[in-house]
# Entry
Amino acid sequence: MAYIVDYSYINQSNLSFGTSSFKSEITENDLVENNFLTAIYRKQNYSYPKFFKMDNLSKIGFLNAELLLSHFPEVENRKNAGVICFNRISSLTTDKNFENTIIDSNNYYPSPALFVYTLPNIETGEICIRHKFMGESSFYVTEHFNSKYIADIVEDSLKFNDIILSGWSDFVNSQIKSLMFLVSKDKSEDSELFDSQNIEKIFKSLFL
Amino acid sequence: MINILSDSLITPLGFCSEENYQNVKLGKTGIKTYSGILGVDKQVSCSKIDDILLDSEFEKQINQNSVKYTRLEKAALLSVKQAVDKSEIDVTSCRTAFFFSSTKGNVELLEKNSFEEDRLYLWHTAKMITDFFKNPNIPIVVSNACISGICSIISASRAIESGRFDNAVIVGADLLSKFTISGFSCLKALSPEPCKPFDKDRKGLNLGEAAATMILSRGDVNSKYTSFLAGSIRNDANHISGPSRTAEGAYNALTDILTGFDTEQIAFVSTHGTATFFNDEMESIAIDRMKLNNKPINAFKGYYGHTLGAAGILEAVIASHSINDNTVLKTRGFENLGVSREINPTRENLVTDKPYFVKLISGFGGTNAAAIFKKGE
# Structure
């Protein structure tokens, strides 16, 4: 059995982000000089300079993990903590940026920092580095948000990991939609089951 | 128990797994040295599938006009078709899962796309495969850098063990593109000459092309062919593009699968062995920490180059054929040990009577995986 410890989300269409118990919004003022993800970073006063080197997919993963894990310091540095992420577009947005760079034959060998982010699982890698998670890290791609597959795959992985950070990070019409769960084998008093129904219910309450 | 019912490889060394295995056993390689391949302005050594052969085999075996498909789709469909035909499973059943592992899929279409936009998505390639075989399930794409293939095998075995499926078709495919050649070049990871895994003169990796398929099934009795025993995936939590200096993730993955296991029974470790300085050094540390220093280890990159998302499946298939042939294959390109730990890469094909082999693999994002397989009865 798998249980939801808590979840966090980022929703660009209504400029909101937060966890189950905390919601914040980005105002036009916050956005003047920053893009949406940087505005969240600034608003939360995070200090992790590597953030600025990341592509958007990794930034989303980083921010969601910060929002979520700031409430659970006991989870940091857990050898058997894993990260399993899902999305629809893989790293295609970053792939297109890379392709647009190398299309110019004078720029066929750009900075290596660009190429590394043309893999979606760099998102999971960045989270593992930040929180010293040394369990399983995996990235899956499905055509649509699929709560059944997320529930099944994470429950399978939980047999080999104590706790898993798992979620969906995608761009719909260039708008960020991301939901991340902290999932545990252990049931606490008010924790809900991490099953297809509950995942779907939370996703719909935030994004539809 | 998870049995492997059948497999198939589409590579420059052959269009079925038996042909591939025989060519590897004879020491042949698919790697050639080119100048000007895909419009790249310098010398590149890589392993490329012949276009004309791919089209003719595709039209003969799949019976469809090859113009409608990308090179990647043709190689993947051919590979799955062969493995499915040999296995006799019902691919149209909802009890048969499909897994597709790839890092870059149809990325070559970013440069020039004469197909629809959706062809760029990994899920689209996977769905095209399930549609072709009239499988009713939504396919699962694993895109976990260079360990994607082994992750697919591990993920599929869990899906079968949990009872959700009876069989799983696992296909991995990645091809050469200007995109990946540029990327690995700017990381200074490419060797202009054929690669030399674990060698003191190694200069980096070669890229290669492959589509590789394995069909897994729940089984109560020991398989005639190979079976999958256990697998583990572990992150280094260290660096996004460099391996851990203490081989933390690889060591942890090996520890997970080998704790309590009699390592005397292991014939060999099939390593990742990309022939980059850092990868091979890291693997030597993992093997040393596991005290497997005297165990024969090999790497198949000298035959195929690095086939990215296909690598784990390709190498597990070749290793499976070799253990069923009581053989430990040589590490093509290896001559003199060039890593800091005393380990034992093969220089020749060896005879073995031991029944197990270990597959080790690592990738960007700090990912590592290890898996253990058993020869057929």
About this structure: Chain B has two domains: 2-218, 227-374. Residues 153 and 170 of chain B are 7 Å apart (CA to CA).
